[in-house]
Amino acid sequence: MHDGANSATNENDAVLVRKRRKGIYVLPNLFTLAALFGGFYSIVMAINGRFDLAAVGVFCAMVLDSLDGRVARMTNTQSAFGEQMDSLSDMVSFGAAPALISYVWALNGLGRWGWFAAFVYCACAALRLARFNVNTTVVDKRYFQGLPSPAAAALVAGFIWLCTDLGLKGSDLAWPMFFLALYAGLTMVTNVPFYSFKDVSMKRSVPFVVIVMIALGIAVINIDPPTVMFGLFVIYGLSGYVVYGWRKAKGVQTSVISTSTDEPDERGLHR
Length: 271
Description:
CATH class: Mainly Alpha
Structural class: mainly alpha
Number of helices: 9
Strand content: under 5%
Radius of gyration: 22 Å
Largest sheet: 2 strands, antiparallel
Order of helices and strands: HHHHHEHHEHH
Low-confidence stretches: 258-271
CATH architecture: Up-down Bundle
Helix content: 55-70%
């Protein structure tokens, strides 16, 4: 009897040891950490007065942020830790970094109005990310509820990158930066639907012309990256209001809440 009891106890101890030793998936979290570094790098470059590199850091973080969730699903390494890590990384790269870069570049010349705009953007990014985590299972996966934080960061960083490339000074563009920061921030917390591209499957076969168009798109971006990237995100940043107005005119439901029974593919992620 004692031998049997001891054996059961040993098995239970072994199970507990296995549970304690459960680690963290490396591959998807490497992408998340790299995206976090992009945001941190942007802040450091802004402090050093290299606003072009600061803007590029935000765009690099955006690309890396779009990959970690896909890598996790492809390798079947999704985890609750990864979801939380991704959310914190997004807050730094797409919340704090754009707010601080815009403040150092232009908004500090407006005094209290400058840090007001920077804080509103940063606070709205936090609220947007928190709302995404709460509503992830009830939002139509085809649309984002409000402007996604990476796109909002791209609007702010793209404007700074373009102006820096044109040789314009931030001190001369303080008020345009003020209104752009407010627009990007407040649009993140609206209920305006923005297309998420989540229903675009990378596993489907596509016509040959699609690959040609993608190649042309890459070539066009390479001609003048600051202008093209900022232009693309301006179009996307306005597209939600166009969709909202079209739905309103057609009498279609404008809210993206509870319009789909399917759970979003990227649960807990903020792309």
